[in-house]
């Protein structure tokens, strides 16, 4: 009669049971491998490269955007040269006006406001001044200064007296610094080019509304005199 369990089977079962016990997790078995295998690193390498490339593009775009904003801000704070005045009327610069500016020097500059809203840029200012001309039938100024420091030529130098108008209403609002500095630069350049007498007087002129803040901003000019009635 054969035994129910042979020695060979008993040893085999014992070995299998021992291997199963060894494969079970114990307190000493780490839950997470501390270091990934080389195969795992190689598998994630393309993803890391792509993510790094996209981050580089994003950072480059951010830097370029900031740089463009800085350039735009600086360009808005640069006064245009007085020689680059913007002509509103095609016939404002004629041979007669050219000979007049060479043979005479103005000794008075009347300064007043346009009693209109302010304007932001070249297109906006040109449209505003065209509308004023259409509504009133005239634009009785020699030159105009925008809040951004642009100089517009209306009647130019061919009519006397010289009238320099600030675009806007400055009864209760102080004119922007760019506008005031552009007006000062314009008058200084006109003196250097013998269009204004070195002893010229800048006289504030009333319009529909009294431009108190404008006159206050210009009162420190050495050429400034008491405002005159319109």
TrEMBL record:
Residues 88-209 form the Peptidoglycan recognition protein family domain. Residues 8-25 have a biased composition (Basic and acidic residues). The chain crosses the membrane at residues 48-70. Signal peptide: none annotated. It comes from the Eukaryota. This is Peptidoglycan recognition protein family domain-containing protein. InterPro entries: Amidase/PGRP_sf, PGRP_domain_met/bac.
